Amino acid sequence: MCGVHDLNAITYAHYLCDEYGLDGISAGVTIACAMELYEKGYIPEKDVPFPIRFGDGNIMVKLVQIMGERKGVIGDLLAEGSYRLAEHYGHPELSMSVKKQEIPAYDPRAFKGIALNYATSNRGACHVRGYTISQEVIESPYLMDRLIYVGKAELTKYMQDFTAVIDSSGMCLFTVFGLEYIPAYGSILRAVTGFPYSDDELMKAGERIYNLERLFNLKAGFTRKDDTLPPRFLKEPIPAGPSKGEVCDLDQMLPLYYKLRGWDKEGVPTKETLKELGL
């Protein structure tokens, strides 16, 4: 995210994140946000001890230290994450986050499924709550065209519910790369617990979990407007590379996603859906 290609600097920055108890994704995106704010002139010189520019590995490492110890004005703001940092300097749109959580390495303009997952994830931009990259890139268990919108609402809902089942089982999410389908998890859970869970019951449990989390978020004040992406991904085409020219049109996926979930047009679970799920 910071345009740094020095492996030593990257490794040391991650080591420091572990030492300080920082998340490497959020820390990296927040520092990148600071770099953009500085280069565009939004962070005044008085708030930083040195120039903050993209591509400088030494500066990146120093910013992790300043963040971890909340040193000075910029350290205190970095520690609050990219959204509050960008908001403080009057440009919240430069925070690459959803629901104030930073976006991981996958550009949502280039992967339409992960875009929808980011936008609708109950804990903000998160690739491990509905890893559509499995199908859009890795071909596990099958390959889908990453740039098309068709089928991505169905894929996203399935992956989110499936992930909720795995997370709740006590098994590592990454086992999905070997086990791939719900029947494998069903057989393991039946063998270990002795309960006769059917595969359909397990997926229904995942759906129940996802709706319960949604209800929590709604009560906490989140609305349909929070099911979105930073303006950059909706309006600014990717400038170069194999996905050149791509933006993300969430409107091609979000209405169908809500319908599949049994939510109304505002993203609120209907009474019928809640009754069906026993919530």
Instruction: Say what the CATH topology of the largest domain is.
Output: Aldehyde Ferredoxin Oxidoreductase Protein, subunit A, domain 3
Main β-sheet description:
2 strands, antiparallel
Question: What's the CATH architecture name of the largest domain?
Answer: Orthogonal Bundle
- Structural class from helices and strands? mainly alpha
Please provide the ordered H/E string of secondary-structure elements.
HHHHHEEHHHHHHHHH
State the share of residues found in helices, binned by percent.
40-55%
The number of domains is 2
Please tally the β strands and state the result: 2
**Spans of at least 5 consecutive residues with low confidence:** none
Give the strand content.
under 5%
The total count of helices amounts to 14
Cα(first) to Cα(last) distance is: 40 Å
Rounded Rg? 20 Å
CATH superfamily of the largest domain: Aldehyde Ferredoxin Oxidoreductase Protein, subunit A, domain 3
Roughly what is the average pLDDT, rounded to an integer? Answer: 97
